[in-house]
Specification:
- The complex is a heterodimer of chains A (113) and B (115).
- The radius of gyration of chain A is 14 Å and the shape is globular.
- Chain A contains no helices and eleven strands.
- Chain B is an all-beta fold and 115 residues long.
- In chain B, strands 2, 4, 5, 6, 9, 10 and 11 form a seven-stranded mixed β-sheet that branches. A four-stranded antiparallel β-sheet of chain B has the order 1-3-8-7, with no helix packed on it.
- The chains are: A mainly beta (113), B mainly beta (115).
- At the A-B interface, strand 4 and strand 5 of A face strand 5 of B.
Amino acid sequence: GENVEQHPSTLSVQEGDSAVIKCTYSDSASNYFPWYKQELGKRPQLIIDIRSNVGEKKDQRIAVTLNKTAKHFSLHITETQPEDSAVYFCAAKPSGGYNKLIFGAGTRLAVHP
Amino acid sequence: DGGITQSPKYLFRKEGQNVTLSCEQNLNHDAMYWYRQDPGQGLRLIYYSQIVNDFQKGDIAEGYSVSREKKESFPLTVTSAQKNPTAFYLCASSMGSSSHTGELFFGEGSRLTVL
């Protein structure tokens, strides 16, 4: 079945450094790739997404890149701040008639002051 | 204030008991979902509903049941047949399968512990 692998599972950086989280997906027909951020004790929230007809998308300090040939996509956070500390989930939407997302296992990011 | 409300936030259950988790949304979304979150396993889909009076099994539906009698409500029952029910349960909604946005709006979750 469809699968999304996410690495690393934990990531620790110093404030101001960049952080990169990578995901690979199995269904080559997947067409939508969102990233969700879940702060401790809170609900997951969409922070950025990208569609299969776009290679890169940027929103202030965060960016997502997509390589359809290799079936992987990445989240890049620059100039990290302590409030970026959270669990980040990537997801992929396989081809099909309904809005199903396959989630990665999550990356726990810790940004140290 | 629009959003998704889950209740209860914490729930304890004895083995052999069924429990029902509530999920209500006032976003006028057609589609609703239940996910289970376990440490190190991300979010796994239990059930989803694209429209009132219709729902489909997700990847881990065994031991769970749902109903969708109203657009706003999508309760999840964790039955005694679920072998490992202790988990964090997240309800979500989206505009619907016809929407290309795909964004899910999540509730704050319900943590179920089986004693």
